[in-house]
């Protein structure tokens, strides 16, 4: 079996596949890995190879690499950004400075659609990357994600104090402060996506934990 692991800022996602079909998958908080809990993987499976992508602290990545080698005696391959991959040419002068999560999303999306794309990864941060029809990565943008937008208002103002547990979605004008903040954050994200998609005449591909909140409005 092949184990794929995506270590994000908030969550670690994993899947087990036989090379053709996904057999099992799961996720847990990145913080739990840092607390030496390790990744909750089924012990009865045989893993021949692990492929790992990480934007988290090196301590988290190192902990998982050690766990996989000790628990399964499997080879671990770390994803890295390259100047070209699968028909896509990286737009950064220094490809190593591009986040590997963004690069993998760009390469995967272009592999699927082979056209002009705007790839939106709506996670802790919201990243937006543009790819031309011929596979040139045109660069991108990094914005606070929906939760970070709300937290910035909570921390940076005296009177805009929102309930962090409330996560109601919508874009209608808010009739109370909590709704105004939640809807305003979502509207800002949607407006950014629509502006870029229209400007570059690109097909929009959305992924990430908050994708389900954006998609109904795009």
From TrEMBL:
This enzyme catalyses: (R)-pantothenate + ATP = (R)-4'-phosphopantothenate + ADP + H(+)
Q: Which cofactor does it need?
A: NH4(+); K(+)
Report the subcellular localization. Cytoplasm
Superkingdom of origin? Bacteria
Print the organism lineage. Bacteria, Pseudomonadati, Pseudomonadota, Gammaproteobacteria, Cellvibrionales
- Cite the Pfam families for this sequence: Pan_kinase
Q: So what EC number does this one have?
A: 2.7.1.33
Q: Supply the name of the protein.
A: Type III pantothenate kinase
Per UniProt, the keywords (alphabetical) are: ATP-binding, Coenzyme A biosynthesis, Cytoplasm, Kinase, Nucleotide-binding, Potassium, Transferase
Q: Which GO terms describe its molecular function?
A: ATP binding; pantothenate kinase activity
Is this entry keyworded ATP-binding?
yes
User: Which pathway?
Assistant: Cofactor biosynthesis; coenzyme A biosynthesis; CoA from (R)-pantothenate: step 1/5
Describe the protein's quaternary organization and the partners it interacts with.
Answer: Homodimer.
SUPFAM superfamilies (alphabetical):
Actin-like ATPase domain (SSF53067)
InterPro entries attached to this UniProt entry: ATPase_NBD (IPR043129), Type_III_PanK (IPR004619)
- By its UniProt entry, which PANTHER family does this protein fall under? TYPE III PANTOTHENATE KINASE
- The reply on keyword Cytoplasm is yes
Any one GO CC term of this protein is: cytoplasm
């Amino acid at each position: 079996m092949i184990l794929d692991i995506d270590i994000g800022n908030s969550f670690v996602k994993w899947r087990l596949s036989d090379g053709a079909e996904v057999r099992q998958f799961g996720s847990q908080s990145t913080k739990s890995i840092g607390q030496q809990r390790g990744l909750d993987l089924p012990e009865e499976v045989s893993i021949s190879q692990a492929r790992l992508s990480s934007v988290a602290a090196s301590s988290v990545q190192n902990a998982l690499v050690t766990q996989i080698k000790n628990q399964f005696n499997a080879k671990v391959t770390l994803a890295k950004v390259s100047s070209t991959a699968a028909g896509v040419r990286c737009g950064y002068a220094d490809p190593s400075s591009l986040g590997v999560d963004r690069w993998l999303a760009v390469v995967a999306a272009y592999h699927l659609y082979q056209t002009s794309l705007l790839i939106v990864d709506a996670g802790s941060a919201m990243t937006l990357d543009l790819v031309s029809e011929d596979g040139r990565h045109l660069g991108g943008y990094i914005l606070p994600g929906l939760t970070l937008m709300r937290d910035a208002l909570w921390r940076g103002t005296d009177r805009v104090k929102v309930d962090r547990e409330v996560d109601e979605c919508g874009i209608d004008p808010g009739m109370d402060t909590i709704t105004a903040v939640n809807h305003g954050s979502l509207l800002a994200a949607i407006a950014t996506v629509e502006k870029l998609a229209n400007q570059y005449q690109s097909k929009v591909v959305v992924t990430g934990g908050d994708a389900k909140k954006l998609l109904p409005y795009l």
